[in-house]
């Protein structure tokens, strides 16, 4: 049984990291220094690792979650805003797994383009390594913002009509 | 040429629960602030009246020469703060309940989040529960 020790450092605050090994999501543990680590056991000789982040607006039922939180937060007044920039890191690489292998993924500062991370500790064959703007999430953010503003205007009109 | 890697559609129920926790925290902070405004508004009214009367004394009554309706103006401000205080007093238990409930929900949901630390929110939630309970004791003590 081969063991992969994976560690992600410099993960920006507010980003929820997501790590996939051979297509399976792996639970990451946060340590007191703000790094995330996971130990994965595998029989395979080689593993494909994908590091990315979760975006709330990319969830399947994002519209349901958005409506529920909008209502619970009293028309969005007490609601924390969604990520406006929607910058997503994708660091996908293959690494040979022989015995115990340690891999460290050090993220770069988020930017709309450019390399997402530097991978050290093992001979990694990079497949994809970039930051990109998730256009779907950006579009959903715009829709959410528009619906929120229209709701506020409608609520203000209703309150004025009721008071008058 | 890079192989096309599809980014998994992340975003799970856990993230939504954390969002609900933050909303509950925000609600509890506002309601706790309104609870303490219940006491503060009466204090405000008392302070306005106190300063108003002290000014009359310090000016040896000459303020009435400059501002003929000074007394009625003074009582109007006090009346408004009193109305606000009355409204908050009538709804004090509701506000306190929302503050405590929101703080407890926020504490539980944010504590369960293993991906991020919410130390400040957890500490403030704990303080809100303690302070609002003290406020309820004072409220019932005053009512008795």
Overview of the structural elements:
The complex is a heterodimer of chains A (164) and B (144). By secondary structure, chain A is an alpha+beta fold. Chain A has one domain (2-163). Helix content of chain A is 24%, strand content 41%. Chain A contains two helices and ten strands; from the N terminus they run E-E-E-E-E-E-H-E-E-E-E-H. Chain A has helices at 62-72, 135-163, and strands spanning 2-9, 16-21, 24-26, 29-30, 36-42, 46-54, 87-96, 100-107, 117-120, 124-133. In chain A, the strands form two sheets. A five-stranded mixed β-sheet of chain A has the order 4-5-1-8-9, with no helix packed on it. A five-stranded antiparallel β-sheet of chain A has the order 3-2-6-7-10. Chain A is elongated, with a radius of gyration of 20 Å. Chain B has 144 residues and is mainly alpha-helical. Chain B has one domain (21-143). Chain B contains five helices and no strands. In chain B, helix 1 packs antiparallel against helix 4 and helix 4 (92-111) runs antiparallel to helix 5. The radius of gyration of chain B is 24 Å and the shape is elongated. The termini of chain B are far apart. The mean pLDDT of chain B is 83. Chains A and B meet through strand 2, strand 4, strand 6, helix 1 and strand 7 of A and helix 1 of B.
Number of domains of chain B: 1
Topology pattern of chain B, helix = H, strand = E: HHHHH
Biggest beta-sheet profile of chain B: none
Low-confidence stretches of chain A: none
């Amino acid at each position: 049984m081969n063991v992969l020790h994976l560690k992600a450092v410099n993960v920006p605050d507010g980003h929820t990291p997501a790590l996939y090994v051979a297509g399976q999501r792996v639970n990451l543990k946060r340590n007191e220094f703000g790094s995330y680590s996971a130990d994965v056991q595998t029989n395979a000789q080689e593993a494909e690792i994908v590091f990315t982040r979760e975006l709330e607006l990319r969830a399947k039922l994002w519209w349901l979650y958005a409506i529920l939180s909008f209502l619970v937060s009293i028309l969005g007044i007490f609601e924390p805003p969604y990520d406006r920039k929607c910058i997503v890191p994708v660091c996908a690489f293959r690494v040979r797994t022989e015995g115990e292998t340690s891999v460290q993924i050090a993220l770069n500062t988020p930017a709309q383009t450019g390399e997402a991370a530097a991978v050290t500790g093992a001979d990694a064959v990079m497949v994809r390594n970039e930051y990109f703007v998730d256009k779907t999430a950006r579009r959903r953010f715009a829709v959410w913002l528009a619906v929120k503003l229209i709701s506020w205007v409608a609520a203000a009109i209703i309150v004025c009509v009721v008071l008058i | 040429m890079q192989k096309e890697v599809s980014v998994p559609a992340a975003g799970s129920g856990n993230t939504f629960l954390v969002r609900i926790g933050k909303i509950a925290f925000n609600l509890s902070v506002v309601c706790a602030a309104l609870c303490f405004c219940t006491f503060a508004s009466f204090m405000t009214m008392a302070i306005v009246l106190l300063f108003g009367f002290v000014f009359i004394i310090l000016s040896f009554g000459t303020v009435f020469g400059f501002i003929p309706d000074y007394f009625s103006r003074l009582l109007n401000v006090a009346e408004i703060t009193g109305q606000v205080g009355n409204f908050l007093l009538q709804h004090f238990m509701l506000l306190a309940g929302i503050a405590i409930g929101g703080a407890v929900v926020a504490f539980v949901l944010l504590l369960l989040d293993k991906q991020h630390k919410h130390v400040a929110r957890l500490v403030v939630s704990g303080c809100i529960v303690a302070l609002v309970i003290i406020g309820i004791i004072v409220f019932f003590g005053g009512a008795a």
